[in-house]
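Could someone model iron/sulfur cluster with this protein?
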Amino acid sequence: MIKEFSNVHIFEYNGVFLAIDVGTLSIFELNENMKDYLLGNKVDNQEKEMMEEELTDLLKKGYFQDSGKPQSVEGILNCYNISLQNTLECPLNCSYCFSKKIKSDPRIMTKQTAHDTLQFIFNTFDEKADSFEIYFTSGGEPLSNFPIIKQVYEEGIELSIKYKKRFKTGFTTNSVLMDDEKLEYLEDAQIGMMMSVDGTEEDHNKNRIFYNGEGSYKNVIEVLEKLKNSDNVCLNNTQALTVLTPDKGSYIEVLKYLVDIGFRKVNMKLARNTEKENPLMTKDMLDDIKKKYRDLVEFLTDEILQNRWKYVIPVMDQNNMLGQIVINMALRKKVLYRCDAGKSKFSILPNGDIYPCDFMSTLPETKMGNVYSGIDSNKREKWKQLTCLELEECKYCWARYVCAGTCYYSRYMNGNKPDLIECEMMKFLMERVAEMIYRIRCDNVGKLRHLIKLVKNIKVNSHDE
Ligand code: SF4
Ligand code: SF4
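Reply:
Sure, complex below.
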């Protein structure tokens, strides 16, 4: 490939050559000569002149070079996203849970610590921030310490008025401790909710089980039925959080099933390896995962082309691995950080210890401070500097401005190198999403505009991990 055109990724799709321009995230169709020329293969001299002329023009317009500004750290610091681990206890014993590895004394947050934590958040974090979002997401089951959720909601509203900041709160639950009393409280509150549900009863009960081995699916369905009758939009719009473990069947069927039983958003994400010795996801599973994702992207593309959005809208969310890629590529939004961990995203344990995120809180060496002693500013600075352009294997990768170097936790667990599965899947999905955009654009540009309009309105809300 000739030097100035190295910022392009070329691949074949159904007999045509598609190019993803790294600097602008534009998608082009190339003819064979142009493809050969860009890849540095031999081309006819006369053709070469014509192509050079065409390419010079494109270079002037900013294509095929590392142009355009990606996100800045200042943009991230507008909104703080705190995961409060109000408990590390849980009545379930799910196969991929990492909360048992977290060390904190006590393991259940007291009212005093919750109060002090809120004061810390509103008093300490950037004055420039417009909003604070506090979620009860990981660790144990948040509903097993429901008084803290109520306290944070009520005190948070008071503090947001005092400090003139926007404030939002929500939690992710496995549903097993939900009861009428809690639902009655939630009915009158503005608290977002996400339910962990892994698909059909059979799929769900493979991993989400009680200590006696019994599945928890029936609890999810009971709660979901009650939520359908709610007048509160927060409850009525409850999202599904679905972990794609290796035993999962068709991803299309998982999505259809969850939408059909009433979820408006389905945040599907691949299970993350938390054990070096005994990884849940291994290299030999990649072909199968890729096939299921390829089918899902083709299904969604067909749906869009048929003007059917029922199953498309639930996927379009920043908390959905595929949805996030579609959003960023459709909007040509370049990112430098995989997530806001350590910058404007933190996880706080029941004892007030502060970590970059919930997964990182399993690694005591990544602790950044405590709500009583503050955050180590040097550590925070290091997180701010950790863009994909600082990462050895990523700084020249064609996928860098969408992937941004994959999850920092997975990287840490993999000896500070990109996790192979995440890295391969990111490149694979970017190609499939480019095909999706190309197909829709060729077939009906109006549908592409509609998709862009749809994803533009999606709020960035990184409420889960
Ligand atoms: S993790 Fe892999 S796909 Fe992502 S930027 Fe790095 S090398 Fe590229
Ligand atoms: S993507 Fe990884 S590093 Fe970022 S918040 Fe999630 S688990 Fe943590």
